Amino acid sequence: MSAPASAMANQPPANPARKRALLAIAGVVALAAGAYAIHWWLVGSRSVETDDAYVQGNIVQVTPQVAGTVVRVRAADTDTVAAGQALVELDPTDAGIALASTEAALAQAVRQLGQVYGNDASSISDVRFREAEIARARAELVRVEQDLNRRRSLAQREIISREDLAHAQATVDAARSALRAAEAGLEGAQAQLVSRRSLTAGVAIAAHPDVKAAASRVRQALVDLQRTRLIAPLAGVVARRSVQLGQRVQAGAPLMAIVPMDQLWVDANFKEVQLRDLRVGQPAVLVADQFGKKVVFHGRVAGFGAGTGAAFALLPAQNATGNWIKVVQRVPVRIALDPAELRAHPLRIGLSMTVEVDVGDVADGKDATPPAGARLADVVADTGPVASHTRADAEADALIARIVAENLGANAAPSPGSAASRSLH
Question: Exposed e or buried b for every residue in 304-322, given b needs 16+ CB within 10 A?
């Protein structure tokens, strides 16, 4: 009995402070768990997040449309260029020679057709002359026939000899032959006039097919000459410049690239289990590793990839062979950025991003209509090439009109409002 009593006497007294501390810790943990559960229910369950996201953008290749030797390079990597700015110049000698040759061919075509049109008047005069010859031959035939009839009556009365009557008959036969010859000449002249008019009737010299064909060659040669000067199709930053001075380049060879820094977006690779509530048009907040959490970008879901990254890989997975282990797939989701925020904090292609999309607005389970501007990143400005093409057309029209007018002559030059002048355009 003494031993148990002694053991109980040796136990340390209870520590109320320790018990209260453990209870406090348990309460804090329970409170934190409850707060997390409430936060997840109200916020976390309404959003999906991924850090597998990267900045993407348009990479516009600058390629020549004609072959040539590089004589000047006006841009280098990291340079900022404006739309329409000259980037590379090729040797224009060959293109200039080709243009001069086509200009001479156009001038020759106009002059030759001027001669053909002038021959129309000559053919008309020839037809009229032939008609006059027929009229004269018919009158001569009537006269000699009347003379033959008189001589026949005289020959019956033996006033003239038979030799005189034979001469009168020969004269009539000669007049008939002359009439037939004149009629044949008229038919030939009319056929020649019809043949010439088939080439010229109903069309002015400036609108003639031969002139238009020569003019098209002039236009092509002028365009080729202008294409020896490569301009920036849009504003952006130069990247991957490979062209060097003196290099011989072929049509279609990439010389450099331009990245429009105001046309960037983010491709966020969400897991397939995160796509359940994602919809086009849902708002997103983004953080770039470059700026950290102090800069927050805002955007919207602009679209979904047509397949997972593995499906479009260079070497897609072959799950039907060997042992199989399930791997969660990811689908690229395009996030359009706010242009104003992008101008304030420029990004670069390939930068890492963290994306969080608010999926609370699930609507009726269908993709929402993308908001205005959601796909602005897909649009590439082409005002530079369009304006350049318009200027090239105007310059070609002016050059062709000048060549035609100079070779038609001052009196035959088409007026600005004439059909011949309009046909040049």
Answer: bbeebeeeeeeeeeeeeee
